[in-house]
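step=encode ok
step=design start
structure_in=
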């Protein structure tokens, strides 16, 4: 992880981008006054992980599940979010494996993401992709393609 961060810092410096890295724990906030606030929420995974809420000044918030089981924190914040980006690693038929491995099923992810104005499913596997695409038909939940830009507001 350290080498990935260091490579990002070197690359950003070439383009004149300045930023700092701050450790964030569940319940803590960081951000740039008047622009963005980031809140960390405890994620349920097999290793330490966070879910994030990105509050964009004057626009609203975006929830990002990270690698996690469904959590009450995400479910309770989703109705007020512009968008919820939620992992959907396993198909609904593999609920037991999802619980053991710290992931969400497509049904669980859709259940939370669909509460927002827009839901986006990611972290799909070959096993979950077909169900995710099917679940997105006729709903406010989408499965974006890799590198696809999505207009949120």
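sequence_out=
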């Amino acid at each position: 992880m350290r080498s990935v961060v260091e490579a990002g810092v070197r690359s950003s410096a070439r383009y004149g981008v300045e930023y700092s890295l701050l450790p964030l724990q569940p319940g803590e906030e960081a951000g740039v006054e008047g622009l963005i606030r980031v809140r960390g929420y405890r994620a349920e995974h097999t290793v330490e992980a966070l879910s994030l809420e990105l509050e964009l000044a004057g626009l609203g918030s975006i929830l990002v599940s990270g690698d996690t089981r469904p959590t009450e924190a995400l479910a309770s914040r989703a109705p007020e979010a512009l968008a919820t980006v939620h992992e959907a690693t396993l198909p609904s038929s593999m609920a037991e494996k999802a619980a053991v491995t710290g992931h969400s099923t497509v049904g669980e992810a859709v259940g939370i993401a669909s509460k927002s104005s827009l839901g986006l499913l990611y972290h799909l596997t070959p096993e979950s992709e077909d169900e995710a695409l099917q679940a997105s038909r006729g709903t406010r939940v989408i499965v974006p393609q890799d590198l696809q830009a999505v207009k949120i507001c």
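step=design ok
step=annotate ok -> The chain has a mean pLDDT of 89.
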